[in-house]
Amino acid sequence: MANGDQLKALFRSYAEGDDRHFYSVAMQMAAHEAKQGHGKLAEELRDLIDAAKARRHAGTVDGAIPLARPKGELASLLSVSYPSCRLSDMVLSQPVLAGLQQVLKEQKHLSKLRSHGLHPRRKLLLVGPSGTGKTMTAAALAGELGIPLFVVRLDALITKFMGESAAKLRQVFDAVASTRGVYFFDEFDAIGSQRGMANDVGEIRRILNSFLLMIEQDESSSVIVAATNHVGILDDALFRRFDDLVEYHVPSADEIRALLRMRLGSYLKSAKSIDALATEAVGLSHAEITRAVGDAVKEAVMHDQTSVPAEEVKMLLLQRQAVRRRTPVTRP
Known about the structure:
Elements: H1 4-15, H2 19-35, H3 39-62, H4 74-77, E1 78-81, H5 94-108, H6 110-115, E2 123-127, H7 134-145, E3 149-152, H8 154-157, H9 164-178, E4 182-185, H10 189-192, H11 202-217, E5 223-228, H12 236-239, E6 244-247, H13 253-264, H14 273-280, H15 286-302, H16 310-325
Parallel strand pairs: 2-5, 2-6, 3-4, 4-5
Antiparallel strand pairs: 1-3
Helix pairs in contact: 1-2, 2-3, 9-11, 13-14, 13-15, 14-16, 15-16
């Protein structure tokens, strides 16, 4: 039989979402049984481990496993996925990256920290302009931790009937407590705006009060992420409910160059063109630059080209700039 240390290591790695260590300990247990002469049991354990690895891989590629799919009314409040993206797929400022890496580090040592009476970071408020990476951050955190991403559907959460929204929010937080995942509240200002504002609606005020109470009481292992483009209108009481406030901005010149290199990849004909293209992209968000480059790459693929002309990328970046200024751009 497995010894106590192995069992503790197995449960600890499961609780922390450390699949690699979990499978390693499980294989050690199978090897131990084989040495004890329990060949049939050892073989069964190895078969179970191999099957679990295969299911895990299929779940991350094909979608969420059924056990993590919300049921009943909760299915209308949460959409679930298993993202494959990582922080390395993003171009982030150093302060943002360092903050997120600290969150991941603490999450991966969740059990150890809690055993010492410490609380790992897990409630994040992401603020900044549209298209700067807030939504992708939630997906990347889920991908890094190997847990599902649950997106809270605010359109289904907010109703005109007194008390109904708070009851639905309670269902969401019950899910937060029962199923570990990253729970993402996008466009959070829809429920988090300051109480007493001119456009204050009674039901919104009630749901904000409920949210403040529920997030403060929550002591689960899930990660709660809220994002807004309008931090200035958030209620002051919200800020102390979150462990970290993460501020996003449009990319700097260096970040634009890194983003262009990442998105163009092998389609980049000449590295010398990066600086000129970066100049045209100043002021655009990560999403706008990514879409412009993506459009250029798609054209290359459809025309069986192996590289993207710098002029094509430049024109698409200028078109994105024109949308911001609401001025037309004509091709030369």
